[in-house]
Specification:
Elements lengths: L3 E5 L9 H13 L4 E3 L7 H14 L4 E5 L1 H13 L3 E4 L5 H5 L4 E4 L6 E4 L1 H9 L10 E6 L7 H7 L4 E5 L13 H7 L6
Parallel strand pairs: 1-2, 1-3, 3-4, 4-7, 7-8
Antiparallel strand pairs: 5-6
Length: 191
Amino acid sequence: MQTALIYIHGFNSSPASFKARVLQAALAERVPGATFLAPALPPSPYAATRLLEALVFAHPQAILVGSSLGGFYAGWLAERHAMRAVLVNPAVRPYELLHGHVGMQTNLYTGEHYEFTAAHVEELRALEQDRVTPAHYLLMVETGDEVLDYRQAVARYAGAQQYVIEGGDHGFGDFADHLEVVFAFAGLAGR
């Protein structure tokens, strides 16, 4: 069976993000022929989850890696489809954080302008999972995250494998230094 990894970017990010590029290059080097998928997500959480579910249906054994809002989406997918997911500085209740961002937005990577609406915030709220299955997750957080309180993720994913790094930032700038943890969780260690 071919190895597949689905990277899910965060709010106002893209498949061209630093973490996506680092992960794609490392996967290609470690597992030649592996499938790396990093879709450009639409602003609508409903549309984003439909796109992600289509990828999951095409690659049901894939490992998910989600960053920030992408971590929230990865958790939603992991619970719905009993998948394994690496959550990197994940948003826990993004509808609370992003309600203050309703209005015009600009994607940091593509420069695309779009409107993030109150309806999008409610779509996020509708994706909230009542419970999590700890065995599905590797949580990777940095305590210096200036956007999200890492302690919320630590509490939400209690019982999951957790990798808490002192310092750092929301972008997880030293992500490349921690890929062994990701690959070990994905069952790709030593390949």
